[in-house]
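Form P-L/3: holo structure prediction, ligand 3,4-dihydroxyphenylalanine.
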Amino acid sequence: MLDKINALRQEIDALTASDAAQVEALRIKYLSKKGEISLLFNDFRNVAPEDKRAIGQALNELKNAATDKINALRDALASADNIDADLDLSRTASPIALGSRHPLSLVREEIIDIFRRLGFTVAEGPEVEDDWHVFSSLNFAADHPARDMQDTFFIQRNPDVLLRTHTSSVQSRVMEHTQPPIRIICPGRVYRNEAISARAHCFFHQVEALYVDENVSFADLRQTLLYFAQEMFGPETKIRLRPSYFPFTEPSAEMDISCNLCGGKGCSFCKHTGWVEILGCGMVDPNVLEACGIDSKKYKGFALGMGIERITNLKYQVKDLRMFSENDVRFLEEFQSAH
Ligand code: DAH
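OUTPUT (holo model):
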């Protein structure tokens, strides 16, 4: 009898099952009323009295082992089913660390949002451009220094294929195929042949805005600028326009805002003037309208352009331009709460 028990014990320890029906068949084979272990219990009464203790114990152990084994087989199949259902090998292992938006993206979106409230829509253009869209259509003279290799990156020594030096190129692209009213905002990356330092980089980002319609005046430009400055830097912000020169606008101006660090009292950031320059602007030169196929007698326009890095520096006091492209996560994580 003991041999039979031991043989059954080995058989049971080695059991396997690949589905629930097999587990149930095993339960019936060993543990049901007519199962092999129950039959052994029936034989128990024939065991000699002096062996009863040892064999009784072995029988009970066998029954427990069989019950545990069959339960274990059932559990293993159930959890294997669950793993299959949930298993997604493409999922990122947890915990999933949340990223943050790049500060330049945050500020770009904020600028776009402000102009969107005034009815401007986003327009984009290519970074690899031609001379016409970057310079000629925008009234740059043939000998303008911006056309020089010193300032502009040319592609394969071809003077007609270059990296755009400003997003004003998107103005002429849009005007070429759209008649007024035009109200666009053009964000994008631009390139200039500059030595990289804390204050200059060979690529940076700009946002251009253009409004062309009948009866657009300098007063419209000024009001748009004031609205933008106060939405971006707070309702206390003052603006100041200084005469300037750009080939594509006449008259042209540069806009300063009251220094948002010292509130205009004067500090090292604003070089103790109380003002910081943030953008260029002006009334679109009639030559530009005509070059792009728009009747300059009927329509007028204003344009403005600003560097996103500059606005970001003012908002967040980033001292070194290179921080924006180094992708140091310690720097980027500082903007997590700015969302
Ligand atoms: N394109 C100029 C630059 O890169 C910025 C600019 C100035 C854009 C005046 C304009 C403007 O639209 O009217 O420095």
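COMMENT: The beta strands are 121-122, 128-130, 154-155, 158-163, 182-191, 203-213, 239-246, 249-258, 275-284, 300-307.
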